[in-house]
Amino acid sequence: MSRAYNFSAGPATLPETVLQQAQAELLDWHGVGASIVELSHRGPEFLQVAQEAEADLRTLMSIPQDYAVLFLQGGATTQQALIALNFAAPGQTVDYAVTGHWGKTALKQVKPYVDAKVAANGEAGGFRDIPAYGQWQLSKDAAYVHYTANETIHGVEFRDIPDTGDVPLVGDFSSSIVSEPLDVSKFGILYAGAQKNLGPVGVSVVIVRRDLLERAGQPRAEILDYRAHVKGESMLNTPPTWNWYLAGLVFKWMIAQGGVSEFAQRNARKSALLYRTIDESGGFYRNEVAAGARSRMNVPFFLKDEALDKPFLKEAEAAGLISLKGHRALGGMRASIYNAMPEEGVQALADFMRDFQNRNG
Ligand SMILES: *Cc1c(COP(=O)(O)O)cnc(C)c1O
């Protein structure tokens, strides 16, 4: 058996050693005679897994103590809706910077509850750049400002943190969390579905400044209440133990590899190599995102002739490079190169792209 280099946007490739460890532990976790997924979430074995995962994530991201960390079900989209329910009063103004597909999704989730204003919108430019901060129209009395740190489909990434003054900043980091050092203290709330950079789909991480949990928010059931989840240590009901466990293994792998700053360097090299390959192709390949907003995690690109898309994908697959087809919203190709994508994988893709161009250019 040979594993391909998998450029899927999410669920995405996982570190091979993590999958091997999970496989080795699957039938008998640490000698207890059962799999970790067969044990109670309230038993000492899983509690240890859960506590280590949180501690390791806190270490990786240098999360300050005045922030709570939650491991929840529902994916990033559910958190997008819960953020309005928990942190904005009914009808209160909230500001959204829309820089791509996921910014639009986030906005859609809160419209039923709050007065959602679009503070900035990159859609007129095809989401190829981030609107300049000077043009953002922020409301003074907003409950929070929401933005998408990395737009997974459009390949647009903020390279700095927007300054929203006293209004808490909410960041969707689903596709760029732990990809480089981040000053968590600049945020009110930071959230991410796991299936891009943290582990398997089925668990989301929410990092929330504790004082915000005092907000009344809106009428909601306990299971939709972040405060209750913090009190219940993310175990109000049965949590997704398998996903939490696997994410925990990914955190340990990341720490062993040198932590977030090491991955930041690798990610910078990987994305630079891919953009260089595209930019030096004389127009055979093109990426349309403004240079300063190009994502290090997701690289969408187009071939100069659409008729070459199918042969490109087919030959790439034969060369062990899979899941390169672009999102249906954009077409073309997309290479997602998260932490778990090794540098050799991106080198193999760049080599293939040059070779394909030589044969078809
Ligand atoms: C994938 C993704 C989402 C949606 O995640 P789900 O877990 O499918 O709800 C939201 N935001 C961003 C930036 C994403 O990449």
UniProtKB/TrEMBL annotation:
GO terms for cellular component: cytoplasm. Binds 1 pyridoxal phosphate per subunit. Pathway: Amino-acid biosynthesis; L-serine biosynthesis; L-serine from 3-phospho-D-glycerate: step 2/3; Cofactor biosynthesis; pyridoxine 5'-phosphate biosynthesis; pyridoxine 5'-phosphate from D-erythrose 4-phosphate: step 3/5. Pyridoxal 5'-phosphate binds at A76, T77, W102, T152, D172, Q195, N237, T238. InterPro entries: Aminotrans_V_dom, Aminotrans_V_PyrdxlP_BS, Pser_aminoTfrase, PyrdxlP-dep_Trfase, PyrdxlP-dep_Trfase_major, PyrdxlP-dep_Trfase_small. Its main location: cytoplasm. It is found in: Cytoplasm. Transmembrane segments: none annotated. GO terms for biological process: L-serine biosynthetic process; pyridoxine biosynthetic process. L-glutamate binds at R42. It catalyses: 4-(phosphooxy)-L-threonine + 2-oxoglutarate = (R)-3-hydroxy-2-oxo-4-phosphooxybutanoate + L-glutamate; O-phospho-L-serine + 2-oxoglutarate = 3-phosphooxypyruvate + L-glutamate. Its EC number is 2.6.1.52. Keywords: Amino-acid biosynthesis, Aminotransferase, Cytoplasm, Pyridoxal phosphate, Pyridoxine biosynthesis, Serine biosynthesis, Transferase. The modification N6-(pyridoxal phosphate)lysine is found at K196. Residues 5-349 form the Aminotransferase class V domain. Homodimer. Belongs to the class-V pyridoxal-phosphate-dependent aminotransferase family. SerC subfamily. Catalyzes the reversible conversion of 3-phosphohydroxypyruvate to phosphoserine and of 3-hydroxy-2-oxo-4-phosphonooxybutanoate to phosphohydroxythreonine. This is Phosphoserine aminotransferase. It comes from Lysobacter silvisoli. The gene is serC.
